[in-house]
Design goal:
The protein is of the alpha/beta class and 335 residues long. 41% of the residues lie in helices and 19% in strands. Helix 8 links the parallel strand 9 and strand 10. Helix 3 crosses helix 9 and helix 5 (177-185) crosses helix 7. It binds 5'-O-[(R)-(carboxyoxy)(hydroxy)phosphoryl]adenosine and zinc ion. Residues 110, 114, 134, 271, 304 line the site of zinc ion.
Amino acid sequence: MLVFAVETSCDETSVCIINNSKTILSHIVYSQEEHRKFGGVIPEIASRAHLKILQKISIQALNEAKVSISDIDIFCSTCGPGLIGGLLVGSTFTKALAIGAKKPFVPINHLEGHILSPTFNNDIEFPFLCFLLTGGHTQIYLVKSINNYQLIGESLDDAIGEAFDKVSKLIGMGYPGGPEIEKLSEHGNENSISLPHPLKKNNDLNFSFSGIKTAISLIIKNKNIIDNEFKCNLSASFQKTVAEILEKKFLLSLKFLNNQNINIKQVALVGGVAANKYIYKKFKNISLKKNIRIIIPPNYMLSDNAAMIGWACLKKIAIKKIDDLYFKENPRLLI
Ligand code: KG4
Ligand code: ZN
């Protein structure tokens, strides 16, 4: 069975052709450069950029996979959450292909794509804990099975990736900010600048990142010279603070599950921020002590991509949880 998958929910235009034997026949991810000079994604520019490139990379994906459109058995695309313009471009395009080819269309939830991504390359033991760390979301799920996800905590304001992006912009570095901050941090002193831990006294599983960003913007305002040493120190201090918050929430999640007699053997880190090696190491230290295995998807499934959408589609087809052509794109789609 061949699946044609499309992802256009933010600033990556991506197409993947994957089969039910887990073989990725082609996978193209086009990261829109157009937003770099703005330090963040401009929705209207994103929609137009998707429109401009989607047909071209779809043809390229078919060529690379050496298949034609009539060989495709199922079409799927991200239908939410995300930027509505991008969702409409990707889904309308994919629905039209499905109608033309007289084949089914399966709408996929972007968050579910991220959550299921580590099930592609790991032997999974349900239930597992999942930290979804992206530019739009910071959430903790208890993944009970495919299609059964319990949200146990989330950010009350900015998403974690958004915080990385905003701090990068504040110190005059590029977008996306996560990789820039991680690089600068390697040369900085993580104990040089003290930053607030929002919700420190809160023992629930929710996050808040906007206070750290405000604190950093005040520090920068009062600073005369923003030299490289300062950028490195600030980046390292920010990254350390964020990692400490995650560590605390990881421990609290384990306590929460323990209180309900739920035993987990795996913790998944998914989404763009899961690429951060420093954060990974912090999770690793706790996991080793608690005898829990960290699972992460392959690198190409961390940031937004169509491979995880195609994979989620295959998982949903397997349990017959599929919707149809009339599914309405939703920027705030819940899981
Ligand atoms: O999952 P993703 O590609 O898109 C969304 O669904 O939002 O995540 C993008 C986010 C961006 O905010 C980016 O700065 C962040 O992931 N990111 C990182 C790293 N690589 C990407 N954050 C921290 N460290 C990284 N190495
Ligand atoms: Zn994403």
